[in-house]
Write a structure and sequence with these properties.
Two copies of one chain form a homodimer.
Chain A (H helix, E strand, L loop, with lengths): L4 H8 L3 H8 L8 H14 L5 H8 L4 E7 L6 H14 L3 E7 L4 H12 L5 E5 L5 H8 L5 E4 L9 E3 L2 H14 L5 E6 L4 H16 L9 E3 L4 H11 L7 E4 L2 H13 L9 E6 L3 H4 L5 E4 L2 H13 L8 E3 L3 E3 L15
Parallel strand pairs in A: 1-2, 1-3, 3-4, 4-5, 5-11, 6-7, 6-8, 8-9, 9-10
Antiparallel strand pairs in A: 10-12
Helix pairs in contact in A: 1-2, 1-3, 2-3, 5-13, 6-7, 8-9, 10-11
Chain A binds a DNA duplex (16 and 16 nucleotides) through helix 2 and helix 4.
Chain lengths: 337, 337
Amino acid sequence: MGVTIKDIAKRANVSIATVSRALSGKNKFNSEKTIKKIQALAKEMGYRKNTAAVELVTRSSKVLAVIVSATKTNFANPIIDGIHEEAYKHDLNVIISYAGEKEPQRQYEAIKTIIERSVKGILLLALDLSESSYKLLSESEIPYIFLSISNNRNIPFIASNDYLIGYQATNYLIGQGHKNIALAGLDTNSYIGKQRIAGYRKALIENKLVLRPEWITNGLFTYDDGLKTMKYFGKNPKITAVIACSDLVGLGIANQAVSLGLHVPTDLSIITIDGTNLCNLVRPTLTSLTQDFHQMGILGTKYLIGNDKNTHYSKFIDVKIEKRKSDCPLTRNNKLS
Amino acid sequence: MGVTIKDIAKRANVSIATVSRALSGKNKFNSEKTIKKIQALAKEMGYRKNTAAVELVTRSSKVLAVIVSATKTNFANPIIDGIHEEAYKHDLNVIISYAGEKEPQRQYEAIKTIIERSVKGILLLALDLSESSYKLLSESEIPYIFLSISNNRNIPFIASNDYLIGYQATNYLIGQGHKNIALAGLDTNSYIGKQRIAGYRKALIENKLVLRPEWITNGLFTYDDGLKTMKYFGKNPKITAVIACSDLVGLGIANQAVSLGLHVPTDLSIITIDGTNLCNLVRPTLTSLTQDFHQMGILGTKYLIGNDKNTHYSKFIDVKIEKRKSDCPLTRNNKLS
DNA sequence: CTGAAAGCGCTTACAG
DNA sequence: CTGAAAGCGCTTACAG
């Protein structure tokens, strides 16, 4: 086996307590000379701390757990980047587990495994937890927070306000003169979906426009949902603008629209929700209602670090509209207006 | 604190040894009745295993560590997916640490932290290790493997053969009739870069074409490198085809080419190296020399699981050309031919 | 089939 | 400033 503090203690002619102190920086009790000697010895002997032992005795660890829905979201990355960035500042490690959003069993296992370690906190990304998984989580006494998905159940989260997202995106297009506005690719049964629809409806009503259920297309925020949506709308869509509920949905719509012979934006304006880097990479670039995913990661991590376990903290993060090239004001040129 | 096996033992009127056995499935020694009783009790009392204690006593753990270069590669995801997929099958957890490729200090720390846990193995993604970091790693006695970057130093890896990549991509374009072929956006000082250049050169020479150093553009495989490359080639490029050393480079080149008024592929053919999903999403879709990143993750994980610590195993994974819409045979239409 | 006991490597009051 | 000792929660020969 490896070198232990016992080995070092023997060589240094001190007790293991002294070695432990010297090596973990609790130096107010040790003489500088001893410390130097021990540290040199540790290095020379190739000592490596046994984290398991430390965790066992201190009953805490320096790791943060992230549970991601296996459903590929292309915004998980900026969130995880934010988490890593903040975790690194505080000398914390990050464990990442995948849990299928639609696999309650795997979800449960993922949480269970995490809980069996004394992690400092748990970040749940884009995850819609089953009742039993949530119970397990909340009974663990480990602080946790949901990222990117809000709720109305007094469960801590950091997310965008999806009601506002629906509302602002719709208003933006209305402001461009559009009246026939679709809402595409969202999971209409999810909390997010319902909130966005509510905001969409509100904006329509305020502007005396009618919500047409057939202009809301159900989906799971995927590229294929975008393609399907546009195939369904067809080459002579009554709609002149669409709110895509993810960048991928927006891209699918744009690509399919072009395939159908439509021009984006003059025939069809698109605004996508999310605003990941993909929007800048494709042509035309996609106007987006941008969420600050990186910030979600940072704030979520900060919350867990400073968490006192009893404060149920939830926060909406501001979104902003980034104008790019996939939308334009409604003109005579639009197919139907 | 939480419930321990001691608490369960007391309630069940058995020894902690029995509880330990019953709970960890070493049941060949226990009576079924006792086992059932203990398991029921554990559940009822909300028992959760203390992983730190288990790791300490068994001197092993169920975690696999992944160290990723912080430099954003868009192929890290399929690799990590592959790792998770395989790890899940074997009931293993995955820790992910970021380490800057150009930050030796952070790299070193990342490895050190990982080594202080008794992880089952270490996967290094797209990482070019400094000498001291590598020393630390190799002295740890923990099995490790490099993914996506090969070497000629007897260090285990799973990667594509970059020499062949350069060779095949060049030959493919030559087969399309191109003679003025650029190689763009690669780190010419890296092992990967050198290998690709060597393959490129070889293909050119075999076809009696001259390698022009000014047609190789240096970079770090980024989108901006693609933009820059194309700005440098200008609107009347002598070259008629380019090998982009990543999908992002290829996309940058394509977008910039279009901005310059060139048509892709008739004015400029592009083949990109990597073949991530991005190639399917953009217009025109990008013909690619596709690497099987997912497979790298799976094979790397398998290797670590079955590893006997002494076998230095390295493997090249097959690549394939996926024809899409960003290239075409050289014709009179090409600006210069 | 089950229990007593040793021990994994470390930290931390406590005593000096 | 330093050491002896207890203990973190578990596993596993060993003995019965």
